[in-house]
Design brief:
It is built from 3 helices and 3 strands; from the N terminus they run αββααβ. By secondary structure, the chain is an alpha+beta fold.
Length: about 130
C-alpha cells in the first residue's frame, strides 16, 4: 500500500503560514503618527527663539527632512516673512532640535519630509 501526501493549504497549521507583519494599519497607524508628531512639535518648540532684533509677529513656512534616526538632513524656507532674522530663527529652531525624537517605523516608511508654519508672536500682542 502506497501513501502519497499532497500539500494543501488546508492542511498547513495556522502558525506555519507566512504572514506579513502588521505595521500599524488604519486607526492604529494614525494614532502612532499623531502621537509622534505631537512629540516632534513639542521638541521643536523647545528650541524656538524669537530674535531680539525683530519686533513683529510673523509666520514663516519651513520645510525639513529627517532620517530614520531623527537627524535633520535639510531645512529650507517655503514662505518667508520678509524679515531675515525671523526666517533664520525658524530654520535655526529645526537645526538646534537635531536629533528629534526618532520616528516610529510606520511613519519612517511613509517618508520623512515635512512642511510646517512657524509663528513668532510678540508677547502681549495677538
Amino acid at each position: 500500500m502506497e501513501a502519497t501526501a499532497t500539500p494543501s493549504s488546508e492542511n498547513i497549521p495556522q502558525a506555519m503560514r507566512s504572514v506579513a507583519p502588521a505595521q500599524g494599519t488604519g486607526e492604529s497607524a494614525q494614532r502612532v503618527r499623531a502621537t509622534w508628531q505631537k512629540e516632534l512639535m513639542a521638541h521643536l518648540d523647545k528650541h524656538k527663539r524669537y530674535p531680539a532684533t525683530s519686533q513683529r509677529t510673523a509666520e514663516i513656512v519651513i520645510s525639513f527632512a529627517l532620517d530614520r534616526r531623527g537627524h535633520v538632513l535639510s531645512t529650507s524656507i517655503v514662505k518667508g516673512s520678509g524679515d531675515t532674522a525671523l526666517d533664520e530663527a525658524a530654520l535655526a529652531m529645526v537645526r538646534k532640535s537635531d536629533p528629534v525624537p526618532p520616528p516610529p517605523p510606520a511613519v519612517a516608511d511613509e517618508g520623512l519630509s515635512f512642511t510646517l508654519p512657524v509663528i513668532f508672536k510678540i508677547k502681549g500682542r495677538s
